[in-house]
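re: the backbone from monday

yeah here it is again, tokenized this time
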């Protein structure tokens, strides 16, 4: 046990050197951020808009991890006198001349390119004193930042949070966006604070049994005296996540409402694997080697197909969710004729995604037909299929899959152009 602990600690020390942004990066972010804040504050004043500008997110809480590019959250907190429907327009007015891209959502926000790897996301929020007054989840951001800054002050705990975020990010579980359905940054900060370390957090996750009727509930501030109160106070739709984490700043909110069972179970497996055999590899984002995957499929007698799909929808959460939904639909369609041995979805962050499938043709495929007393459909079914048999008063057909995986996707695309349009997909292209 002592040897295992030493091994984990040595791995984590090495990881911290990789996941902390360099001082050079942080200095550049701070300088560009300060200049930007001065400009928009000046614009706010000249437009006589009653609002407060504050920096939020991981940067404000000192829990930002090293990435290829950085998104810094900047909130403009508007006075109550402004109606909810106009604060996005007022934000646009403040940002005039900044080449801001308007991102549509439940409340529009704006993205500004500060450099090739630095972006500012400017988000309008309402000034609220009571969480019940929130008209949008972002209205709670000010409370979230303040809570974390007051709660987590030690450098050691901040490092534990960095480890958790890096681990989640590398294992595809970081982000509350619908195409990720994972842990939000705020959620991870709360969980690590609750368990007091990254290791204790993933050990707890590895032991969670979410298949039981007893929901895993974490109520840090003990807002609810009984579990039954939680089930009453929180919207039922927000209670479907494997873990219910009560927001310390708002007792009627589940911080992990976006966490899906699929993402959680994959993450749980990563936790177990890491604890069993600690390695720095668990903190490095996996990049699929397409050529290696293709060669491996060929050696095993499987078929391989790489596709690129594109949506007409706005980049980000909307595009990502549409592309993911279409990928899952393609998978379910292919399953009628192929055994899917491996598959993958990689969203670019723009309007396109690449997906791959490794598959094997199904043998002796059986298609269910009508009951034998349904003469009209029975004759049609017989005319369509050559090899048929009857079982329990129903007719069936046996067919062989005489087309390749790529042929399947080509034919599917030709026959389902309307369905693609309905799913907001404007391109389906076979790359490899």
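seq for it, each position gets an aa:
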């Amino acid at each position: 046990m002592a040897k295992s602990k030493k091994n984990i600690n040595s791995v984590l020390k090495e990881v911290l050197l990789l996941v902390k942004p360099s001082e050079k990066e942080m200095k550049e972010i701070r300088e560009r951020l300060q200049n930007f804040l001065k400009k928009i504050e000046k614009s706010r004043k000249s437009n006589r808009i009653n609002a407060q500008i504050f920096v939020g997110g991981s940067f404000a809480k000192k829990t930002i991890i090293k990435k290829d590019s950085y998104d810094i959250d900047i909130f403009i907190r508007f006075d109550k006198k402004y109606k909810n429907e106009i604060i996005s327009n007022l934000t646009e007015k403040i940002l005039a001349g900044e080449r801001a891209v308007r991102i549509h959502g439940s409340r529009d926000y704006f993205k500004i390119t500060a450099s090739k790897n630095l972006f500012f996301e400017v988000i309008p929020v309402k000034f609220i004193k009571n969480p019940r007054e929130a008209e949008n989840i972002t209205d709670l951001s000010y409370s979230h930042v303040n809570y974390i800054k007051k709660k987590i002050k030690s450098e050691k705990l901040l490092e534990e949070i960095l480890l958790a975020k890096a681990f989640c990010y590398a294992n595809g579980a970081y982000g509350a966006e619908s195409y990720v359905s994972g842990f939000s940054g705020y959620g991870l900060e709360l969980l690590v604070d609750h368990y007091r370390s990254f290791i204790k957090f993933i050990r707890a996750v590895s032991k969670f049994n979410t298949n039981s009727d007893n929901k895993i509930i974490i109520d840090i501030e003990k807002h609810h005296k009984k579990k039954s109160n939680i089930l009453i106070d929180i919207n039922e739709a927000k209670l479907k996540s494997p873990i219910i984490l009560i927001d310390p700043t708002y007792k009627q909110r589940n911080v992990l409402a976006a966490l899906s069972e699929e993402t959680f179970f994959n993450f749980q497996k990563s936790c177990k694997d890491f604890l069993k055999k600690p390695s720095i590899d668990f903190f490095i984002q996996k990049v699929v080697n397409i050529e290696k995957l293709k060669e491996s499929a060929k050696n095993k007698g499987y078929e391989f197909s790489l596709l690129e799909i594109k949506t007409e929808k706005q980049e980000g959460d909307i595009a990502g969710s549409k592309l993911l939904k279409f990928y899952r639909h393609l998978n379910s369609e292919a399953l009628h004729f192929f055994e899917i041995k491996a598959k993958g979805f990689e969203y670019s962050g723009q309007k396109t995604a690449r997906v791959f499938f490794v598959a094997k043709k199904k043998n002796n495929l059986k298609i269910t037909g009508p009951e034998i007393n349904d003469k009209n459909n029975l004759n049609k079914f017989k005319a369509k299929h050559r090899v048929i048999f009857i079982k329990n008063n129903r007719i069936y057909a046996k067919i062989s899959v005489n087309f390749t995986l790529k042929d399947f996707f080509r034919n599917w695309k030709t026959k389902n152009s309307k369905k693609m349009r309905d799913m907001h997909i404007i391109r389906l292209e076979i790359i490899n």
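The first helix runs from residue 2 to 19. The CA atoms of residues 238 and 257 lie 5 Å apart.
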